[in-house]
Design brief:
two-stranded antiparallel ribbon, 3 domains, two-stranded antiparallel sheet, 14 helices
């Protein structure tokens, strides 16, 4: 392919535009399924027509004072009237909610305290990305990468519009899945122009992300600092996500490279599908999600430490060459091994002749 020049830079810049847009597709569900800032139970015995979020004096005897309980519970009413004496002190779960704003699907589809339905959106999105691995590669081989790239870059816009017009929660889930499935086709290639080395990049990024997540529980009430730590963790784990694609291709020999890449992608998408369910851990303790993710990052950093560095190394062509990519091995050592193998093969051929 030769050295990078104007032609490569032009194509890279053009491809980068839809890839950036695809990144937006892959992150939109975080905002669309965000938890509303304020919500309360609908108390039909006392609501205005039409109902509004702001309450009257009846709130003191119809809704608990505790803001957390008020999101999901109300006091039972036995008489169907908006009188203080009609309400008991027995709590009952809400069956409908009112929201201060309607900027997410939680309010749009009245999901209220059904937290599993809110987090399921992210899981469905991840499943769409994972399913795409089964046929996007084959489709691009059959139809051509350019054609596949154009289709997978443009079709999600149509699916996204239809998803935005969904009139039910399950219709929304269906188009969330389809949009993620198609959009992932143009988001399967990444470029990292670093000279730091894959192993060092991945290990250090894991460590920084793990450190940020470990600190989180101790600064959770310190103004903007929790947000800063979350963004730091997100940035460095995103570096890991992109670098790992290249690292896997450099570690594995040609004869099993596609198989190992597919396996790695599958496991990665499996983790991505599970991650949106992590808010459910908050019901156990507010610190549990951070503990789980930080522990995973620490373990991954330790495991990566025992893998070989591929910087300035020739990509292995056979399993035998891959076995010599040991921690601490160098490009020269691999070249010497390849030269030794070549001499051995020539000697064997000479003896046979």
């Amino acid at each position: 392919m030769g050295p990078a020049g104007k032609f490569q830079l032009r194509n890279f810049s053009l491809i980068l535009v839809p890839v950036i847009v695809m990144a937006m597709y892959n992150g939109q569900y975080i905002f669309n399924a965000a938890k509303p800032n304020n919500q309360r139970c609908m108390v039909r015995e006392c609501e205005n027509t039409p109902p509004v979020f702001k309450t009257g004096e009846w709130k003191t005897w119809a809704i608990p004072d505790d803001p957390q309980k008020a999101r999901c519970f109300r006091y039972a009413n036995q008489e169907g009237q908006c009188k203080k004496e009609s309400f008991s002190k027995d709590l009952m779960k809400c069956d409908s909610w009112l929201y201060e704003d309607y900027n997410s699907i939680v309010a749009e589809f009245d999901l209220g305290c059904q937290e599993w339905k809110r987090t399921l959106v992210g899981t469905i999105h991840g499943l769409g990305l994972m399913t795409a691995l089964a046929f996007i590669g084959t489709l691009s081989d059959l139809c051509g990468r350019r054609y596949t790239f154009i289709v997978t870059s443009s079709l999600p816009s149509v699916l996204g519009i239809v998803r935005g017009l969904s009139n039910s929660y399950y219709m929304y889930l269906a188009f969330e899945y389809l949009e993620a499935l198609v959009a992932s086709g143009s988001y399967s290639t990444g470029y990292i122009l670093d000279h730091f080395g894959r192993k060092k990049t991945i290990t250090s990024s894991y460590l920084i992300s793990a450190t940020a997540l470990t600190i989180m529980p101790f600064i959770i009430n310190m103004g903007p600092f929790p947000t800063i730590m979350v963004l730091v963790a997100k940035m460095f784990i995103s570096i890991v996500f992109s670098a790992t694609y290249l690292y896997v291709t450099e570690l594995t020999p040609t004869e099993v490279r596609h198989t190992m890449m597919g396996l790695s992608l599958f496991i990665g998408r499996l983790g991505k599908s599970s991650a949106p369910l992590s808010p459910l851990l908050l019901q156990v303790t507010p610190y549990l999600p951070y503990a789980v993710f930080s522990a995973a990052a620490w373990i991954a950093a330790a495991l990566t430490h025992w893998t070989p560095e591929t910087h300035n190394m020739k990509m292995p062509q056979t399993l035998q060459e891959a076995e010599h990519l040991e921690p601490g091995s160098s490009f020269l050592a691999l070249q010497e091994h390849q030269l030794s193998c070549t001499k051995h093969e020539k000697t064997a051929e000479h003896k046979q002749s």
